[in-house]
Amino acid sequence: MREYLLVLFCTAAVTYLLTGPVRKFAIAAGAMPPVRARDVHREPTPRLGGIAMFGGLCAGILVASQLDNLSKIFSEGTDIRALLSGAGIMWLLGVLDDKWGVDALVKLGGQMIAAGVMVWQGVTVITIPVPGFGAVAVSPTQGMVISVTMVVVMVNAVNFIDGLDGLAGGMVCIAAMAFFLYSYRLWYGYSINDAAPAVLFSVLLIGMCLGFLAHNLHPARIFMGDSGSMMLGLMLAVAAISITGRVDPDLITSETGSLTATVHALVPIYIPLLLPLTVIALPLADLLLAVVRRTWAGQSPFAADKRHLHHRLLQVGHSHSRAVLIMYFWAALIAFGTVAFSVTNTGRTVVLTLAGLCLVGLVVLLTPQFRPRAPRAVQAFVPPRYRRRKPARAVADTAPAAGTAAGATATGSGATGSGVTESGGTESAATGGSGEGPTPPTSAPMAELSAKDKELLGGLDGGSSAVGGRGRGTGRG
After folding, report:
1. Spatial distance between the Cα atoms of 81 and 62, rounded to a whole number of angstroms
2. E strand or H helix at 443, and its extent?
3. Cβ of 364: how many Cβ atoms within 10 Å?
4. pLDDT (0 to 100) of residue 454
5. Partners of 129 in the beta sheet?
């Protein structure tokens, strides 16, 4: 565990330190597209954050290769090499898209090429564990189709939710944490060495996301862009593929002692798509809804719009940060709920706990106007929007006095700033007998003038018009 924590810290630190220089480079390179109609942010924000994340990935892999236990992953398989190859192709494709823009079909072809390169290097589904039948072998062609499909679906699912500050990075981080808990349990608890690459991939993902979120939370200083979102989706898919279909149920049966216990222990990975679907359930649901919605409207499935789940949360009244936190909550509830169900034997307790949390989540989801206020003792440590507002009694007390003084001055000198022209004496001053309302705030500064200053202003030829009044008496006639 200490080696994993060291890799996590190094990956997060390198990503965090690189994000600042990358932001300056993105601004200098002009990777700041104008704000579009479907965007939520109001000012142009630099992209190319995926460059810093790719740097953190390389640093984490370099550190892991020098550690005693983790170095065995590099010598016993080709998963790390395949990951770097696929992530490099996906990252390069994203950089080109962030800077110059890439057609949707070209982008889809690049995603399939990156997935194919990884499959060619051995990252593919070999068997499908089916309840009651055990491990069912698949042909190389079938394994390739399943693996490429998983990569493309996950890449686009993560890319679709990258619409709010910190949303994609936070949800991938939550999914990676859930994946880490489950894969680490298989590797350490059941001594399954084939699960070790998935543990390392999850740790790298967590470090990349945590290091970048420090710059990407609302208000974001930089966006990860497609260079970051597509790379995160690919890594999440590789972590799923590396553990799905490679875990032999017989190894767990020898530990548990019964087939029933094995089935319960393997619930999240019995079907290859089940675990990936649970950890990215919300992004995938958003992806499917978007495809159906656009196809039904006669548009391309890749046509951008402003009707994603996070956009709908903003439309019902939630703030930017609140919408992101709600998405975090549901992602964590689904991902960790699945992992908890596979760990404990008390399924009833887990179901009741999840039901209670779902109820809390629905209440928060349906009450967008609720704004919690922090206690006064901790207000110095929370954002300003959660602090209690102080009553502005001083402003309320001084406003009438200022208005009265201004009215008196305007009556005596006529310099009221009411904007009345010098066309004659038929128009009254702001405080004259018109009775149309209180004195405007613009006359308040005149109350602070001394009598000598007022005489000078009145004696100037035409000088009274400079302060918006009519001079003394009836004006210049």
Report:
1. 12
2. none
3. 16
4. 65
5. 135
